[in-house]
Amino acid sequence: MRVLQRQQSSVRMYMLITLFAAGFFAVIVKLFVVQVRDAERLQELARSQYESREIIPPMRGLILDRNLSILASNVTEYTLSVDPSVIEGRDTVAQFIARALGKPASVILRQLRDTTVQYRIIEKRIPEMIANRFAGWSSYGVRLRPNPRRRYNFNALAGPVIGYTNVDNRGQSGIELEMDRELSGTAGFIVYQRNARGLRRPEVDYPKVEPVNGRSVVLTISQVYQSIAEEELARGVDLHEAESGRCIILQPKTGELLAMANVPSIDPNKLSEYSPEKARNRSVTDLYEPGSTFKIVAMSAALNEDLHAPDDHINAERGRWVYNAKLKPIVDDHAYDQLTMRGAFEHSSNIVSAKLANELGDERFYKYARNFGFGVQTGIELPGELGGDLRKPLDWDGTTLNYLAFGYGLAVTPLQIACAYAAIANDGVLMRPFIRKWLLDEDRNIVDETVPQVVRRVVSSETSRIMRGFMEGVVDSGTARLARIEGMTIGGKTGTSQRLVNGSYSNKSHVASFVGFFPVEDPEILILVILDAPKRGYYGGSTAGPIFRKIAMRIINSSSAFAKKPEPLYASFQGNDRIRVPNVRGMRPDIAAQVLKAHGFNMETVGSGEVVAEQVPPDNTIAPRRTPVTVHLVSAAHVQRRDMVRVPDVVGMSLRQAMNFIKSMNLEPSLMGSGVVRTQNPAAGELVSRGTRCTLDGDARIITANLY
User: Fold this and answer.
1) What is the per-residue pLDDT across 602-626, written as a single tens digit (0 to 9) for each?
2) Out of 213, 431, 437, 610, which could bridge 255 as a Cys pair, Cβ 3.0 to 4.6 Å?
């Protein structure tokens, strides 16, 4: 019996020892899991219960124009939040918050008494003026947190170009998106530790990390030019009842983008009115068939390859060319028998362009089109840019080359057209367009600069000179006479193309365009204007051309850079093949003949009389020596020179500028209201009596002349 009891005791002892050993082993394993395997995760879990990290947002960098006018800045708004579970003296706290925010105290107190939540927002987007009422006051559980928000200082100005940010202050479109990394900066943070009562205090073991504010971006955009472009483009869209419009202003020599206007446009300060139509930067995201503006390729290539000289005559087929009996003929708006190369470009002949393209052949034409920058992105620092659609010759059929010659069968962006013409204006050299001029740090030091970049030489210097002369002829006597500006040499090209409607070209929906530059001798400014589906007129010369003129006039009048230096009346023109036509209006025919001869021109007369009333080409036109100048004579009884003056062009001037100009021409100004002059009647250049009263309307609508 005793032996059995001893055996049972031994079994119980071994069992206890085994249980203790197993328990000890389990503790060891648990300790290993807690202190080794899961240590990092558990520490993080514990830390999350008594520590919290608060992000300190950086201030977003500014966006400025080329003259350092601030286009996009920041305002600080505040969010007031509370932790009702730890607030003491709720009645007093509610009274103070209510007075500061201008709200009923009962509403605030009801929110403070709800202790089921530890975080409640009392008010968002508190302006800084109201937030200042909380200065010097603090209460446990009440937090006023700053939130920087974007502000666009000129509202809708360049809205699609600048873009906008979301509620987290991150760029969503335009420059804000393209340069978001540079503008955003780096967020900082501060670590808080919560005590047993739930109150927070900064953690001394974790120093506060200050945010690094974003860098500022200086654009090549001119706020003045952008305003002019947007105002005149919007008026043009309304006047011609177009669906939309686009305008680009470039510096041909550098590729700097001076303005990029879109109608309709978006105001980034009013995102509640957002729509994709308004936000889209059509100048780089929308494709269109360029029509006659694409004739620059065939004409430049033919000259550059020495296929023709400028004055070579080409059969224009009386306006209708059947190049293939099975296909539709190529037609021109006007029937010409023979046209020179110059005349073909000035009068925008589809037939001559197609013939030149055929002489070049598929490969050479395609090479020049690509060299001008078509079919590839320009590389400008804007999001969403398309490269266009220019198929390779292997994909062409028997009609492709002929239609490409006058701008059908491909798709381009407005920026590509502007850059191609800028290459001609820049002596045949294509520049990469750019919009970011400088990158600045917080102290306004330049940390990065974009320098002009040559892409390639497209045509020779001589070819570009000839083409500039052709383009001047387009404005002086071709399809763009409504783009002329007295006293300034303008070169350009019109474009009118049919749009695809339901898969077919429509003769009721067009894209009208004009691209021009000035002064022709040394181009400084290039302007492209495009109207989509205008209903009141659709030819580029009669719709986009006048808009170009108004924009150019205001740019010229806004700067002394385009002021002309006085020239002697009689100058030596030896060795100059192209010279400026003098003004002989109002002179006797014999005097006019002497003046023209001294300048190297021949005179032809129309009519009879003792006074020159009109002349063709007009004065200040650059023309080849020995060009016949046709003068129209009237009788001295009808008009005496001392009593006649020519109405100056004052469109776009301020009333004060216009008044001084009117007085200088011996006319009598009469001012009404304030503002700038928008239109004039009689037209600029019209002969009126000295002393004619010209009424300048402050609403900038009309100049009327009462003839005595």
Assistant:
1) 888 888 877 777 788 887 677 787 7
2) 431
